[in-house]
């Protein structure tokens, strides 16, 4: 997408061949671009959320393997790289998907060719992600068009949680792709952006994206969604996912489940934008089986923002000594999901429909 007229992706190889990313820790206040030049750089960037969002975590991991192959292309180096990168974040399955894919491709070539082959495959994974998200957007556009047709001349109001925008992917975003497509098709859309405590990905990233793309939006506190839905102010919810199980349970940023409950109670359709690398056919019951990342307490007790003097600051919002819990994701059971927006089309959130839409992926994953 564009930033002030210039097209960007979230991760790319520059003219020197060095991988660069937008360091998202400083948005919306500063756009910082950094080089990632070693495997250790990638570990830090993923673990400490310089880059985040399930598809981008996968893309970054793929590039991390490529850079690691310049350091040590041996079989042992490849295995160790898989392990070291896999430990960075436990919930988003795209990480494992990308690492498995890189290992599959690289095992088939001799060590001296691995760096070049890995760079090529990492670049392809990025391009594939862009195309997947574009397709999700086109399928989602049809749903937005159908809602718009029922309220001629009126705005379609969409609520989203966290950042499942282009910053969470290589480009387009998953949940935002239908929104960008609708905006470009001239359909009036308005986006309620959940702030998404504790790290405020909505307030800091989704709002920044909407601002830069000129899309009508309003930032709302995480607790506002139910109220807005009760008052008929939300036509649909679209969120992303970090892992979706074989039966369609959706694991996404903490707070997603509450939005799904509110949507169900108020008859608001709840869609999940699902790129196929985010499906984990090995898992059925998301609540019982998906590991939920528990992050640092300080993400809850400290809030980052820009002070009046223009500097980026962390301020403490709780008493000294108050402990915090910080589960970063929750699981929305498939019964609460109206539909899964995939690159192959709209898929009901149940096991038979997912198996029918992705038989090849299911077979490959369970092999
Ligand atoms: C297209 S991204 C889908 C999800 O990855 C997104 O909604 C989300 O939960 C991101 O969490 P984060 O902790 O910021 O990596």
From TrEMBL:
Pathway(s) the chain acts in:
Amino-acid biosynthesis; L-methionine biosynthesis via salvage pathway; L-methionine from S-methyl-5-thio-alpha-D-ribose 1-phosphate: step 1/6
- Where are the active-site residues found? 242 (proton donor)
Q: Which Pfam families match?
A: IF-2B (PF01008)
Output the InterPro entries linked to this UniProt entry. IF-2B-related, IF-M1Pi, IF_2B-like_C, Initiation_fac_2B_a/b/d, M1Pi_N, NagB/RpiA_transferase-like
Site for Transition state stabilizer, residues: 162
Which domain of life does the UniProt lineage start with? Bacteria
This entry's Enzyme Commission designation comes to 5.3.1.23
Q: What does this protein do?
A: Catalyzes the interconversion of methylthioribose-1-phosphate (MTR-1-P) into methylthioribulose-1-phosphate (MTRu-1-P). Also catalyzes the interconversion of 5-deoxyribose 1-phosphate and 5-deoxyribulose 1-phosphate. Part of a bifunctional DHAP-shunt salvage pathway for SAM by-products.
Protein name in UniProt:
Methylthioribose-1-phosphate isomerase
Q: Which organism is it from?
A: Rhodobacter viridis
């Amino acid at each position: 997408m564009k930033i002030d007229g210039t097209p960007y992706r979230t991760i790319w190889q520059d003219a020197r061949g060095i991988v660069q990313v937008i360091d998202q820790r400083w948005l919306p206040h500063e756009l910082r671009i950094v080089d990632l030049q070693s495997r250790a750089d990638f570990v830090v960037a993923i673990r400490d959320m310089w880059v985040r969002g399930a598809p981008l975590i996968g893309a970054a991991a793929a590039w991390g393997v490529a850079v690691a192959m310049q350091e040590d292309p041996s079989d042992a180096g490849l295995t160790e790289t898989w392990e070291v990168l896999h430990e960075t974040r436990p919930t988003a399955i795209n990480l494992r998907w990308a690492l498995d894919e890189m290992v599959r491709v690289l095992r088939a070539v001799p060590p001296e060719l691995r760096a070049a082959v890995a760079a090529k495959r990492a670049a392809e994974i990025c391009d594939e992600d862009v195309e997947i998200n574009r397709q999700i957007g086109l399928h989602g556009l049809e749903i937005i068009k159908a809602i718009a047709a029922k309220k001629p001349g009126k705005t379609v109001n969409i609520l989203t949680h966290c950042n499942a925008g282009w910053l969470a992917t290589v480009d387009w975003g998953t949940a935002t792709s239908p929104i960008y497509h609708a905006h470009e098709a001239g359909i009036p859309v308005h986006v309620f952006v959940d702030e998404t405590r504790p790290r405020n990905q909505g307030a800091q990233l989704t709002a920044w994206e909407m601002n830069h793309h000129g899309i009508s939006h309003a930032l709302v506190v995480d607790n506002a969604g139910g109220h807005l839905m009760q008052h008929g102010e939300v036509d649909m919810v679209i969120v992303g996912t970090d892992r979706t199980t074989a039966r369609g349970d959706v694991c996404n940023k903490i707070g997603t489940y509450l939005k799904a409950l509110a949507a169900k109670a108020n008859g608001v359709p709840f869609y999940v934008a699902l790129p196929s690398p985010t499906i984990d056919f090995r898992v059925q019951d998301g609540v019982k089986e998906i590991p939920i990342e528990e992050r640092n307490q300080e993400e809850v007790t400290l809030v980052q923002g820009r002070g009046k003097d223009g500097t980026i600051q962390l301020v403490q919002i709780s008493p000294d000594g108050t402990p915090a819990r910080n589960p970063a994701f929750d699981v929305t059971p498939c019964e609460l999901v109206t539909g899964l927006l995939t690159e192959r089309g709209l898929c009901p959130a149940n096991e038979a429909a997912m198996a029918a839409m992705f038989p090849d992926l299911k077979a490959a994953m369970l092999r």
